[in-house]
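Fig. S4 source data, part A: sequence.
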Amino acid sequence: MKLLVRLLSILLVPTILAACDTPPSVPSGADVDRGGNVMYYARQVAQLQASGQPYRVARRCQSACAMLMAAESACFPADGTVEIHSVRIAGNQAELITSLLEIIDLPAAISPDRATDDLNYFMAAFFPPRIRTWFHSEGPGATRTQDFTVFHNRDLALRGEVTLCE
């Protein structure tokens, strides 16, 4: 039973969340990418990896946009920032999760807090190892804070964590 519950939390919650949000339409080289749905950004990273198509990340890359650090063909403006916070599950998303749990008769199995934790781990899997470790140990993944932690692209590039645009 515990395995089934864990499997449902991993498979169903992201599917529900993916259906809740409209993917952002942020063109390459935009000034600000406010992020959004982690499933959309996971797909975007996969598409960039498969195509190898160059992509210029927004000067201010916020929230789930930070997942683009995993795309080898992405470059980051030297004067820009990557700004990270914990995954946020909006009220309507929490209601959908709760409704699903009631339908499948597992009301205590997955809570919005558990969904937040699972999605934080999913999102952080796209971060460079140093940032991923920080995120889970003392950063937003540990505290669930919605306050941004700002990383400057030049500093990230010096550590080999992003490529700067020419």
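Fig. S4 source data, part B ends here. Helices lie at 2-20, 38-51, 91-103, 112-124, 129-137, 140-143, 153-158.
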